[in-house]
């Protein structure tokens, strides 16, 4: 027998008939409308989650089944991917754009994020194409192209307010993670180290590659160091290399993710910003 949950539907202006139909499909007897863009359906039956979430997606609504008594403040660690999750770009693609080879690199990035290529090999292939670029290209990307995704600042502010630790784990580069860590007061950050000699990228990495399994290991080691239970950890990502850490977390959130990732995550946000996470939990 399924444990009843709360179905939360997020939409700027939800259609009342849509909401009635969704509540009936979810067998949810209690509806709350705490905000204009949030509908909470208490007592929903998660046995119907697939058909209910498909109906919500068809209407263009974000939705998720969540534990009825859980608040965002109950989480103690938020783990986030960087590229196309916390921030709006794939940094390596924008670096490549400065060298005039973005289409070539972006194609490899897209295939790697879909899980069609070995991540480490694909990363080394792309980094090799950047050889000879001045280090100033990294600064140009950070200062001129990189922005937080919508809702990211609200999410990070909520973490600070509730004392939730933040861990940024990226298959990208430390040049960007360290600056984000400093600028937004994140607690931990890990990524790949580009080799730079005489102010130029050599086309090589230093140290081990931060791949899917490394992301998972970093989540586990940080969780254990903080003496947390798995259910106290939330992870957010968009690519296939995020799946192991999303599975390891108490709640895994796919953010504007590849179809495979959205299908496997506990929660998929496909329309709203990162602050949608805050509205899913009371």
Class by helix and strand content?
A: alpha/beta
Strand count, sense and barrel status of the largest sheet are: 7 strands, mixed
> Helix proportion of residues, in percent?
40-55%
Q: For this structure, what is the CATH class of the largest domain?
A: Alpha Beta
Strand order of the largest sheet: 8-7-6-5-9-10-11
The CATH H-level superfamily of the largest domain is HAD superfamily/HAD-like
The number of helices is 13
Strand segment tally: 11
What is the total domain count? 2
Percentage of β-strand residues: 15-25%
Low-confidence stretches: none
Work out the radius of gyration: 20 Å
Look up the CATH topology of the largest domain.
Answer: Rossmann fold
CATH architecture of the largest domain, by name, is 3-Layer(aba) Sandwich
Quaternary state reads single chain
């Amino acid at each position: 027998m399924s444990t009843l949950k709360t179905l939360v539907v997020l939409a700027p202006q939800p259609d009342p008939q849509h909401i009635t139909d969704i509540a009936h499909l979810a067998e949810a007897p209690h509806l709350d409308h705490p905000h204009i863009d949030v509908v909470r359906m208490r007592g929903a039956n998660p046995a119907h989650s697939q058909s209910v979430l498909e109906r919500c997606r068809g209407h263009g609504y974000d939705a998720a089944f969540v534990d009825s008594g859980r608040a965002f403040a109950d989480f103690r660690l938020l783990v986030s991917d960087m590229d196309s999750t916390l921030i709006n770009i794939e940094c390596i693609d924008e670096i490549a754009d400065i060298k005039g080879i973005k289409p070539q690199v972006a194609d490899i990035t897209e295939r790697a994020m879909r899980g069609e290529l070995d991540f480490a090999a694909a990363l080394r292939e792309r980094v090799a194409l950047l050889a000879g670029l001045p280090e100033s290209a990294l600064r140009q990307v950070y200062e001129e192209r990189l922005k937080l995704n919508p809702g990211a600042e609200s999410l990070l502010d909520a973490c600070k307010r509730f004392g939730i630790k933040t861990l940024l784990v990226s298959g990208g580069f430390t040049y960007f993670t360290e600056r984000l860590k400093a600028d937004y007061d994140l607690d931990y950050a890990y990524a790949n180290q580009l080799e730079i000699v005489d102010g130029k990228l050599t086309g090589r990495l230093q140290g081990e590659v931060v791949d899917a399994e490394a992301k998972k290991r970093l989540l586990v080691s940080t969780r254990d160091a903080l003496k947390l239970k798995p259910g106290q950890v939330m992870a957010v990502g968009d690519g296939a290399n995020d799946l192991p850490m999303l599975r390891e977390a108490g709640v895994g959130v796919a953010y504007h993710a590849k179809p495979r990732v959205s299908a496997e995550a506990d929660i998929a946000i496909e329309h709203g910003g990162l602050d949608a996470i805050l509205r899913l939990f009371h």
